[in-house]
Design brief:
single chain; four-stranded antiparallel beta sheet; 0% helix; globular
Length: 196
Amino acid sequence: ITTICGNAPDNIIFAADNGWILRWDGASFETFRTRRTGGFLDSWSAGDTAYLLQGNGSGFSVTILSTKRGPGNLRELFDTMSVENVGSIYSPGRGDILVAGGEGLFRRSGSGWSLVNSGSFLYSIRGTSGNDLFVGGGASQLMHFNGMNWHYYYKSPAMTDDWDLAKLSVSKHLLIAGGSYPGDFRGLPVVLMGKR
């Protein structure tokens, strides 16, 4: 299992290597397998839909899984792009999908992908809506989008140049960023917490 998402105790998605997906319905597992066999990197669940990111060093694909009850509710969307080191997926709703990767932040709205932010080495994206997005990355990158502008927290007094902020969790009143300090041979963990 490489990533887990869900919105209720009886609607949890587990994604694994080689395109395998398990859904827990509160009593048993249902098994799906996507047509692509890459490993899953990240997932996001919103309502009755799970967004699953598959990728490698040269590109990514997105699988959209309908999680409504009953067998046969798998719907797959494959859009491949040549983007290095993708790592995170988020959907604010309305059919928008955001993917953070080595060459920036990309949005799929409608039928195509567009570059939203050209930052490099972006590892994680989370938010509460399309107007409240946080993105974390290498070299202590942490940014916030308020619907109109990006605010960069890079090189704030609490941060060093070497932190890799690989995971984010965001709520209305709290931001948690986690990662590592690769400059230390032990790979020390790093956690930032901030009230909003």
